[in-house]
UniProtKB/TrEMBL annotation:
The lineage of its organism: Eukaryota, Amoebozoa, Evosea, Eumycetozoa, Dictyostelia. This is Nucleosome assembly family protein. Pfam families: NAP (PF00956). Belongs to the nucleosome assembly protein (NAP) family. Residues 1-67 are annotated as: Disordered.
Length: 260
């Protein structure tokens, strides 16, 4: 080996060899740092805080609902008190109206009584004339728009025997209706009547009992309602009262049409 080659070998030998990293140190360098765990108290605080907020919201909602309920009840109470006050005021005013109407009606009744007294002689004279007209009152009754709807075929047979009709004005504005019949094979009565007694608190009615011949009570033995059912103490219908007193009795010619 030459001198130069020996020197080169020596120089190479003298160069520092790279240091080897020990295995434990390499593993230590490659491992990640562990995640630092939060304290347990803080974790529990974070998990319980939403639950507490929810409970607070529920409590606030309950309180709000109770307040609203109290407000509604208070408003209803005020409305009820106002309604009661209004109703009381209306009742008081209505009583005043009723009292005034009663006074006016009494004056009208007084005038009506006086007029009936003045008309009485004329009614008698009229009756004498009407007695000469066959079936006059029968035709008046059956042609009245309201009464005609109440008359059955059997009622019609009895009404053909009606010879006269009159209205008697009694004391205290009481009224009596009298129907006179010719002899017939249906009833024994010559006159049947019905009266209306006007009392302060009610209207009372009285009537004669119809005596039917041979048990032929047309008010019971018929499937249709009979006009003669009106002759009952329990029937105080004022619509028929008005028909007879204010229309048929005062203006009979308005309903008279001679039958064929």
């Amino acid at each position: 080996m030459t001198k130069n080659n020996k020197q080169q070998s020596k120089a190479v030998g003298n160069q520092k060899q790279p240091q080897k990293v020990s295995k434990p140190q390499a593993q230590q360098n490659n491992t990640k740092k562990p995640v630092q765990q939060q304290p347990k108290a803080k974790v529990e605080e974070k998990t319980t805080k939403p639950s507490q907020n929810k409970q607070q919201q529920q409590q606030q909602q309950v309180k709000k609902a109770k307040v609203e309920e109290k407000v509604v009840k208070q408003e209803e109470k005020v409305e009820n008190e106002q309604d009661a006050t209004d109703e009381s005021e209306i009742r008081d005013v209505q009583m005043m109206i009723d009292d005034l109407i009663d006074k006016k009606l009494q004056k009208v009744l007084d005038v009506d009584i006086d007029s009936e007294k003045d008309l009485a002689p004329l009614y008698i004279e009229r009756e004498q004339v009407l007695a000469q007209i066959p079936l006059f009152w029968y035709n008046v009754v059956i042609n009245h728009p309201i009464l005609s709807q109440l008359i059955t075929e059997k009622d019609n047979q009895l009404l053909k025997n009606l010879s006269s009709f009159k209205v008697e004005s009694l004391d205290n504005s009481n009224v009596k209706f009298c129907f006179t019949f010719k002899p017939n094979n249906l009833i024994k009565n010559k006159i049947i009547w019905k009266e209306y007694l006007f009392k302060p608190e009610e209207i009372e009615t009285n009537c004669s009992k119809i005596e039917w011949k041979n048990g032929n009570d047309i008010t019971k033995n018929s499937t249709e309602p009979s006009f003669f059912s009106w002759f009952s103490p329990e029937d105080s219908d004022l619509s028929l009262f008005e028909c007879f007193k204010e229309e048929i009795w005062r203006f009979p010619l308005d309903y008279y049409t001679p039958s064929e």
